[in-house]
Amino acid sequence: MRSKTSNQVKETIDEELWDIIYYSLALANYYDINIEEVIMKKEAINNKKYDTKI
Fold it and tell me: 10-20: string of b/e by CB count within 10 Å (b at 16+)?
């Protein structure tokens, strides 16, 4: 079995990230969830919890 090159690994990660983003947005759309609000709310929680800003 051949090991993947660094470029192949990156392409695989790119595809998997796309799947995660696509299905997350599809679920948010289906359940009428405002992604911008969720991100801001969760960021505030994490900033308080971890005392950091991203």
Answer: eeeeeeeeeee
Task: Compute the distance between CA of residue 48 and CA of residue 46 in angstroms, rounded to an integer.
Answer: 5
Report yes or no: 25 and 35 within 8 Å, Cβ to Cβ: yes
Residue 10 lies in a domain: yes
- pTM of the predicted structure, to 2 decimals: 0.68
Q: Is residue 12 a part of any domain in this protein?
A: yes
pLDDT digits (tens, 9 = 90+) for 21-44: 999 999 999 999 999 999 999 999
What's the CA gap between 37 and 25, in Å, rounded? 13
Q: 1 in a domain, yes or no?
A: no
Structural domain for 43, as ranges: 6-50
